[in-house]
Amino acid sequence: MLKIWNGMFVGVGGLGTITLKRIFEYAALKEPKIKKIIGAEKHGLAQREGAVDVYVRFLLSDNDEVPKYYLTSPTISIGEADLVIGLEPVEVLRNSKYTSSQTVFIINTNTIQPPLSISGQVKYPSIEEIKNAIKEISGSSKIIMFNATELAMNKMGQALYTNNIMLGAAISTGAIPISKEKIEETIAEQLKDVKKNLKAINIGYNIGTDLLSKI
Amino acid sequence: MNKHQKISKINKIIDVINVVIPSFALDSPGEKVFLLGNEAIARGALEAGVRVVAGYPGTPSTEIVETISKMVHYYPDIYVEWSINEKVAFETAFGGQMCGLRSAVSLKHVGLNVAADPFLTASYAGAKGGFVILDADDPNCYSSQNEQDNRLFARHALCPVFEPLNVNEAKEMTKFAFDFSEKFQTIVLLRSTTRLSHSRGDVILGEIKPIKKRGAFDFNKERWTFLPVNARKYRKIMLERFHKIENAVNDIPFNNLHQIDGKEIGIIASGLPNAYVIDYLKDNKLEDEISYLKIATSYPPPKKLIEQMIIDLKRVLVIEELEPFIEDFVKIYAKEINPSLEVVGKEIVPRNGELNPQIIHSVINKFLNKNDLINNNNIKFDIMAPPRPPVLCPGCPHRATFYALKKAEKRSKSRFIYSSDIGCYTLGFYPPIETIHTCLCMGGSIGMANGISKSGETNPIFAILGDSTFFHSGIPSLANLVYNKSKVNVLVLDNLSTAMTGFQDHPGTGVRITGEKTTRILIENIGKGLGVEFIRVFDPYDLKNSINTLIEAINYSNGPTLLISRRQCSLLATRIKKKSGEKINIYKIDNEKCTGCRICTSTFGCPAFSINEEKNEIEIVESMCSGCGVCVEICPEKAIYKVE
Fold it and tell me: How confident is the model over A176-201, as pLDDT tens digits?
């Protein structure tokens, strides 16, 4: 059986969206049932504090033989996302047409207001409004939202660990077709301050487990 | 020593200059690796034995040359450079192939415009040593001023175009392009697009061809000297060569016809959109219902394959990004062999922007008269996500310069004209900065300003461009200002880097692509050499001095002025500080003093400011702030202070 898995990570330039994607890709290389990995990212002008959306796609199969040409598109279509990690809440809303009732959401509620909102020209919606809209558009019940930046600052002393807290929460939902061990192994290979990053994963894992049980 | 030990050893040796050799630089045929499209193209060039590589940075093509520059530490015979512009880069690579060496120039779509002059003539001579243009187009203008389709450009030069559909094919076709170039003695253009260059996928490594140590100039001077007599001769040779290529492309394995007998409809796609078509056909179980031609050599198109496919069809859909390039050929071929064929193309496939799975889905459904996808994103919610265009980074020295410009403008009681250019600073177009009035092409700011200055306009005129842009194509236009006595203030925003494309060095930094030190060329010295009499260098973080310098410049009436606002890019500066463990200054707002005038957010607009809705207070987000301290000067209440 061939199965395609789609991850969509959205955020703002500079938040580490591409690094997060890279962890998924390197970890996927370790997972035998993932036969093919493909993904799209943004570089250059678009990165400068602008909206960033990246995709990572896996072709899962129990057999070794997979078609040469399948899962060739680096981007996804309407309703196809299996997992959304939103490093900024409004960016999830912006891309919510890619989600469905099957989508699992991990969303950082820490907002980064675009200049138009800071100068008061366009209203930045409240977290409640964002949550309701995402719920209505996707129809999904698995929407996990918490302030990962605050958590990183309070528990780790640096906002740098935000994304790994988010990743930990995503692992806890079971929505990633890669084991926790393989992701941790990848972090140990690819990132500096391994201990702290693994601690961040566990903080995220615990809060994710907790929030999921309350849904 | 195994492969990884080898790499780690080399990386240790070259650690001093901060280069990490990618592990895929080694020769390990058969190994499966996971690469960025541009890395795959670089690897393809390496496998082909490329020896001379030149380019100018430009999204989405930059990582091609960057990747090769890292490989050089392992393959010291490869010569790689950032040239000052694409024209020079093209000529450099062309010189390499004259010596029988495999050579490549890498550029973005608009970069080929800069290299158009050599390209359209070099194409007559073709290539001796194998010469490939590694081109990356930008449908949807993600990082560009237009979305021109370089297939048309290549057609103008009778230059074959190869368009891969995924990352692995990008590697394979790059390698193949060099062989093809040498075999047919032609230049080849390998066309990637943003989506391919910046997507990642699996690549199977191939063998690396030995890299020639030395080339030798080919003294066949007729071929390289385009006097009319030689040009006429080589025009004929080019046409003969092209005729052979037109036949050869039908047998290239990257083109693939999947013909279903007895069916009356077919789909033809070119380049990356093939990926969307393949997935669509498989997902909808239509693989055996519709004839499908995957085209990888979009120019010249594989005429025989197209004819073989369309001869018995009633309807065919042509899917391609941007211009109706293949579509026009299909229409011409159909006229000869199947005049009643209905060719569907740009009437349902968008001619602007990038294609994606969703668009392809709609297009094919429309072609097959099926219902379209249901879009669950209703308009009510769309309105709620405020737009987020890219902006200047926190601490960006350009913002400080622009703020000084606005202050000087106010003080001078005139309206400044900001003729601008291509670079990060173009983002100054957006509110609240709005100090950009034009942006056309690399180096275009000075020429346009010159024209405006001769049009009876009495307001002060600024030509704003970056340091790398100045070297790229600003120098001749500055000479033109001096020569024609034009009253233009040329403002070079010198952040000591080609920042927008990822901090490449250039002649003004005194460092080569490999990290090697070289002569540093100072912009002010160029100005002096060209005869500019009023030249000032200032630090944009010193607002008071910046404003005074700008006022002084507009009052200077004897010809052009050259103003250099010099301060390292804040992203780069912060990165260096963090690496060396240097402390980054922390700034805060004293809410007792803050009156809520919002000059910081509505006039200065640094993204490190945020509004705390609950308290209705402005705060500085520590994780975003670069610690430049410029906001201390702009606050009229002196409410921003440095935390000691």
Answer: 999 999 999 999 998 989 999 999 99
Pair B86, B76: CB distance under 8 Å = no
Residue A64 forms contact with B (CB below 8 Å): no
| ipTM for the whole complex | 0.92
Whether B39 has a pLDDT exceeding 70, the answer reads yes
Q: Count the alpha carbons within 13 Å of A178 in the hemisphere toward its beta carbon.
A: 29
Phi, psi of B273 (to 5 degrees): -55, -20
Chain A contact for B59 (CB, 8 A cutoff): yes
Mutate to test the interface with A, among B142, B376, B402 (most CBs of A within 10 A): B376
CATH 3.40.50.720 fits A2-63+78-212, yes or no: no
Q: Which residue of B has its CA nearest to A48?
A: B390
Neighbouring-strand partners of residue B136: B108, B192
Range(s) of the domain holding residue B601: 583-642
CA B253: distance to chain centroid? 29
Same domain, B562 and B628: no
Structural domain contains residue B383: no
Closest residue on chain A to B201 (Cα): A38
Backbone angles phi, psi at A77, to 5 degrees: -110, 180
Q: Which of residues 422-481 of B touch A (CB under 8 A)?
A: 424, 427, 430-432
- What would you report as the CA-atom Rg of chain B, rounded to the nearest whole angstrom? 27
Strand, helix or coil at A58? Answer: strand
- The model's pLDDT over B418-475, given as tens digits with 9 standing for 90+, comes to 999 999 999 999 888 999 999 999 999 999 999 999 999 999 999 999 999 999 999 9
What pLDDT sits at residue B24? 86
Judged by CB atoms within 8 Å, which residues 158-177 of A form the interface with B? Answer: 159
Taking an 8 Å cut-off on Cβ atoms, the answer to whether A118 and B60 are in contact is no
Q: Which of B201, B381, B427 sits opposite A133 (nearest CB)?
A: B381
**Percent of chain B clearing pLDDT 90 (strictly above):** 86
What is the band of A42 on the pLDDT scale with cuts at 50, 70, 90? confident
